[in-house]
């Protein structure tokens, strides 16, 4: 490994290199690593004219001020600009592509990624650059639904890419490898897997967005699927190792690809829990069945297509996270270890700690995130009274909600599927309760070390406040019913008459034919609709507004074609 700053600087030969995409996530790490080594003159190439240096980039700022680094604004679609930036350099590190404003626009992506790569190769050959190292992604071999266990470089590229950018990166890979040893240019490709670290803009934000949504509690996919992750500084270190190996003109390196990981595969949801827990978010604890998870992803794909019209960032994030969590994806780094002499310089534990410590802006306690967790109550919470019923139906406490749901399901089974009459079921239920209470009373307080909790009489007492509230609610319902009956008796409110008569007829029909099924459906909907509405209140309200407006317009058109007496009744 090359010496770092301070290790006899005068004895080191200074070489010139170019970092294309040097203002990107991985590009910044490569630039910082090169500057720390001390024997490099670094040209940072980016797509913005006047980049703003971050507070953490003091090393780059100092290097620019003393002439060890310089910045070039380059559009990779223009070969002349590339030639101007790399003229006289011996090595080109081609890292992140510029941030694409329209990642689904094929024309834009193709000209930047594929045509840009062609321009870079031609410019390198024209300027007699000795080495070109391309940073690709392990996603180019991922088929979407097949597990990869300890995959190596013999794996072919996928025939079903997860997105357009990955497919075009695969084409860029092929161009880079084909250009090897033409006009003296030596090339190789690195494929890091799940790169993370401070400032990462894909994996980490997706996890945080999911943590802020209703999916925070759920483990989507199998909890046992393994994944490889790579801390960004290790990716930068791998680029330096690749440059040193190419300098030796090793046949086993030139024109080859290498997987780069932290060499510490771990369960995807363990990684997620460590990151989210460190940032102060709730860790996923509830594992969804496999078929449920696939339904979630299918729904996410459908809604993703409408994400421009509906701001469903959490659904898109769930889709992105689930795509990584469904399958095992681990890769062997033996080739990189043997031929590049690569080994991680930052462990997974340390990498996660550094990432969490360097991301205060997206932690739960940050000022920009606190508004998401404000104390403003949702509409459904206010409708349910904001008490214990709201906490149960809105899944505030998963264990309590689950046991309440299970208890209601058992009651449903007891009354409707036991084959007994309703009165017989009530009598047997009361007998069972009395027997259990009596049995609890006569049991000793301790049986073989197990403490038997006694049910105190206070458990059955109702406080005066609760009793008053209950009576007030009954009185309000009674007065409302009396007012309704009086209004119907006067015979002037035809709108109310139609609503009441329709409701009574529907109830009569349900009780006679569909009572058992209706109660079962109502039980399930009570524990799902309230929770769903609270999470997507804005989207559902917008959709309801559209439906209500359309219905009113349809009613107006329908009423215009009715006889005048009926029109007056409907307009009341």
Describe the 3D structure.
- The protein is α/β, with parallel strands linked by helices.
- The chain has a domain at 379-440 and 466-535.
- The protein has 22 helices and 17 strands.
- It has helices at residues 25-37, 58-65, 79-86, 106-126, 164-178, 203-212, 232-247, 268-278, 290-304, 313-325, 334-339, 348-357, 367-370, 379-383, 388-393, 398-416, 422-442, 464-490, 494-526, 529-535, 537-560, 564-571, and strands spanning 15-20, 40-46, 69-73, 91-94, 131-135, 148-151, 186-192, 195-196, 218-219, 226-227, 230-231, 257-260, 266-267, 286-287, 329-331, 446-447, 450-451.
- The strands form 6 sheets. A 7-stranded parallel β-sheet has the order 3-2-1-4-5-7-12, with helices on both faces. The chain has a two-stranded parallel ribbon with strand order 6-15.
- Helix 1 (25-37) crosses helix 7.
- The longest helix has 33 residues, at 494-526.
- The N and C termini lie far apart (86 Å).
- Mean pLDDT is 82; it is low at 1-10 and 306-312.
